[in-house]
Amino acid sequence: MLGPFDYVFWVASFLLEVGVVFCTIYRRVFRSYLPLNTYMACMALVNCGQYACIKRFGYDSPEYAYFYFYTDGLMMILMFLVIMHFYEQIFIEMNVARYIRGAATLLLAATALFSYLVIRQHQDHLSGRFIGEFSQNIYFVGLVLTYLLWGAVLKLRETRTQLVQFVLALGIYFSGTAATYALQNLFPGLWLIVLHWLPGVMGAWLPAAWLYTFAKVPREARLSTAPLAVVTR
Amino acid sequence: MMAALICVVSLAAFLQFFVSYCRSILATTREVELSERVREVSGIHNASVAADDFGRLRQLLHLCLEGGRDRKEIRAIEIYYRLLRILGRMSHSTVPSVSSWVDEERRSCSYFAAVVLDRRISENRDMFNRQLDNGL
Question: Looking at residue A21, what is its pLDDT?
């Protein structure tokens, strides 16, 4: 059963996602960040779909579980496209876009194949525990990709403030979500007490942070990334 | 085993990303010079702002009319400052090198609050002048 806080985070996420899309249209950067905007728009639609699904079938229904699980998988594929877009932006001067696209296609195919095999193996018992484990692994893959991206930002001394903040916000999102699902698998009892709120909080965090960056940080703003590294060399 | 490993790595990465994100916000004010007016109001007499000044500067910020432009930034930095204070207390006697790093970070947070206060005082003064002009 969903509580008032769940609805608050849900509505906040939806409004922030729509806000990101409108803000990029207003700032005339919609096409420059097309994958990011596609992700935000689809996420807003998924939120509406989840709400309709809960209203019609109920929170504990298998229909909602399947809807949540499959849309989460699809959104993850879109998120990989966003990450690849960031990689392209960071390596833009090295003319390696062709290789990045190749690597992205390979990664997408591998993720899709892995997901298909796992789902086929577990199709008779798509339990909450299995979904938790699967989400933990898939978000961890996202975290690894973002961590490598952050490494590239530091190594190549990327100075665009907007890009740096996008990557860092993504890192917080993936690490927070992966840690939440991992904690759920380790301590299932904690899920109902505190952990079930965290994916909602993280879901609201990402559009909030991106909206902040689009709205407040000028596109031409620059910063030195060296002082941002926690471990200085 | 796998879940425990993912949990530890994710939490470590979360901390690292969170600290870097807060630093990226703090970096936007690092080069900004504080005006004499804000130094006078907040009682900052030295060249640098002290690590413990954050609370006082935050209270002064509450006294200013807020335009809503920097509310989220200051809230994020406030969370960061509180986490640093907890870490500082824990590491004070055990790991001195971490303690000095924490102090430096807290000083950056205080400087950020001073810059925001300076901006707000300036905005409030402009608004007051505009109202005076309209009244006359």
Answer: 96
Cβ atoms of A199 and A7 within 8 Å: the answer is no
Q: Each residue of B113-135: pLDDT tens digit?
A: 998 888 888 888 888 888 888 76
Q: Are A199 and A180 in contact (CB under 8 A)?
A: yes
How many H-runs (helices) and E-runs (strands) does chain A carry? 8, 0
Picking from B2, B6, B73, B104 by the largest number of A CB atoms within 10 A of its own CB, the best residue to mutate is B6
A71 token code pair: 């849309």
pLDDT mean over A183-210: 85
DSSP states along A134-184: HHHHHHHHHHHHHHHHHHHHHHTT--BHHHHHHHHHHHHHHHHHHHHHHHH
Residues of A in contact with B75 (CB under 8 A): none
Residues 15-74 of A with CB under 8 A from B: none
Cα-based distances in Å from A105 to A80, A98, A141, B126: 10, 11, 15, 54
Q: ipTM score of the complex?
A: 0.86
Q: Which two tokens stand for residue B95?
A: 């790991």
Burial class (CB in 10 A: 0-12, 13-18, 19+), A224: exposed
> What is the residue type of B70?
D
Q: Would you call A224 and B14 a contact, using CB atoms and an 8 Å cutoff?
A: no
> Which chain A residues are within 8 Å of B20, Cβ to Cβ?
150, 168, 171, 228-230
* Over residues B58-74, mean pLDDT: 77
- Pairwise CA distance, residues A21 & A38, whole Å: 8
**Type and span of the H or E element at A84:** helix A62-90
Phi and psi at residue A222, in whole multiples of 5°? -130, 150
Checking if the pLDDT of A23 tops 70, the result is: yes
Instruction: List Cβ neighbours of B74 (8 Å cut-off, separation of 6 or more).
Output: B58, B61, B112, B113, B116
B 52-71 near A (Cβ less than 8 A): 69
Beta-ladder partners of A160: A222
Q: With an 8 Å Cβ cutoff, is B27 touching chain A?
A: yes
In whole angstroms, give the CA distance from residue B20 to residue B41: 31
B 91-110 → A contacts, CB under 8 A: none
